[in-house]
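--- STAGE predict ---
source: upstream dedup step, 1 unique chain passed
mode: sequence only
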Amino acid sequence: MTSSELEILRFYFPDPNEEELEQALCILHTVLKFPDGRHLELRGGLALCTELFAKNIDFTFNRISHMTRSEVAEIDVMGKTDYFVSVLPSHIKYLFQYDINKQFLAAMKQVTLGSENPMLEVTGNGSMLLPIYKESLEFRSFITSPGYCHISQNINFSGQPDWIVQGYEALHPGQWLAFPHVNYLLDRGISIPSDRHFLWKKFNGTTGRYLSPLATALIEARAHIKDFPHSASRFIADETIKKMYSTFVQSIRKKENLEQNRVYHPEWTDMIIATGDVNLFRKLDQCSDQPLFRFKDAVCWGSNDSEFTPNIDTADTAGKWHYQKKCAVTEEVVRNWEPASYMASRLNKIMKTAEEFSCA
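--- STAGE serialize ---
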């Protein structure tokens, strides 16, 4: 345990006392181990620590080449699709909120990523990716590779549920759409007008699930933390691991990494975020109960039955639904409810501060 490690924790958690931070660091040293038994030291910032951890638990990570194609780093990529608000039916009396356990760790574990530089393939004006193409094995290999499609015309979302219509409402011609989104929309029967794409093809070891060992290790570390008694230190340790992978995922898109010979793959961030969003979309597709709103990884359902449970699979594992809260539909909720995506943040704040409903 060093003073520099404690300083990193103190930067993120200024309120706990010295003893609580020291105990949190001891927990982190216990759960974050290299294969040779050494523990990870929190030095140089959480993003760098996470990269060093990845390189020590999976040596193939050290052989990943940088992405140096500057035009890829500069493309206009559609942002997150993590909000929507539907109409609130008048009979709804209670709201039930669930989130996805370790949403982006689950995405990191499964996502296929590219190494080196992508290829640019031009298909020409008027080209269209059609759902029927997925009947081809070659096309399925193409569309499940890492990459982006350039959107050449407006996409027709008519007849789609609110989480799709509002989720993709910011997408416009001239932007690029990450392949996980393209693959999902094709599965929904939506055609994609695209005149060119960047693609990391699946051959010669230039693609792989490069972050899967890291994600697995961090999932196991967070599970191990639950073996410790409930305390402020345990909370700090768990939150530190969350910040490790979130800061790492954002850092790999920074050009300074290229100058410092650290992992530089800005498209990895887009592929991870897109995979996490699409995983949630697919879960909503499988649910027979219509959700009312979503903000980030939290989704809310409603009912006039206080004992309602949405038709979803819940489990305390990465990528599964997790119960958050139940509350009554109050005048404040009704007053602030509007079927528009920009209202999702406000409604989520109301849910967080609302009193938990009890049948007692």
